[in-house]
Design goal:
Blueprint: E1 9-10, E2 18-21, E3 24-27, E4 29-30, E5 35-44, E6 49-57, E7 60-69, H1 85-105, E8 107-114, H2 124-135, E9 139-141, H3 144-157, E10 165-170, E11 175-181, E12 184-190, H4 194-200, H5 208-226, E13 235-239, H6 241-251, H7 260-263, E14 267-269, H8 270-281, H9 285-288, H10 302-315, E15 320-323, H11 328-338
Helix pairs in contact: 1-2, 3-11, 4-10, 5-10, 6-10, 8-10
Length: 344
Amino acid sequence: MQGIWLRCREKGQGDNCKAFFGHGREDQRAFGRGHMSLFGVVELGSHTFRYLVAEYKDGVLVPILRGRSYVGLGKRLQRDGSFGLDAYDASIKAVEEFLNEINSLEPLRLWAIATGVIRDAKDRERFLAHLEKAIGCNISLLEGREEARLSLVGASYSFRDPEDVAVFDIGGGSVEIGIRSKGEEGYISIPFGCLVLLKRFPGCETDQARWNEMREFWAKELRLELQVPPKDLKFLIGTGGTMVSLAALKRHLHLKDLNPGLITGTELALEELEGMKDRLFLLPLESRGELPGLDPERAAPIMPGIAIVLEILSYFQKEKVVVSFEDLLEGVLVTNLRSQGDGT
């Protein structure tokens, strides 16, 4: 598969330094002097904007600082498929807040990526150009299959790169699935994430019958897109906000306590997921956000999220899924830095 090219902002290396990613390369932009082992990545997603700053030394990635903002781009698409002015304003605000935190650590390099609904937005080029001015570097718009590949890298990294594994990443605009088996890898992206399903099936977050319709629709899409029999996989790993929220709900973790050490490795059994779904349907939306581990912004999206997880379990004939806090962000950093040795 042809790799993507990421152009990053680089500190202290001058205009001639190159960053390699996939099979491509792009010139960097100089930006002062940076910490020689800190690296950052920003993701502009359908529901959430996120960033990660981590130390990379001797082949090990250690998170230093994370942040997120619920921008909700999926809800801000206009009928003509373009973003309204409120989407531009909310995005700029989130990015500027991120940069205040990121720049305080002076990472050597910063990469920026865009995913989800931005891929299909009518004005995506104008939108990204607008944000590039704020971030100070080019933003790479990830194709869905490449996003799936990077999510596979990031999530499996936390489990020491197992073989015979499937990793799925549930986003607001799409769901990515990456499979590694018998030395081969494959990737798909399904354009029906949590926010898309909410819009397509209004009421599915509170009405059981509507939810059942939505789940049936998703099941058909999954089988249509995957079109391969499930392999004898040893591991099924789930990432993304839905999976982190479900793990936090199981462990009764408050949002302030969320971190990779408490989330990664959490197992969610089929019967547990069904039980969570039933309990959530008994609660009004405003009450769900009061549950330990569930952000009020995810009170509605978590319902199509659960349907997505249940159908993936059914497809791969598994009784449980393991949650990974690490995901696409780690995948971007690990892939890029591995290609450059120690990244320095």
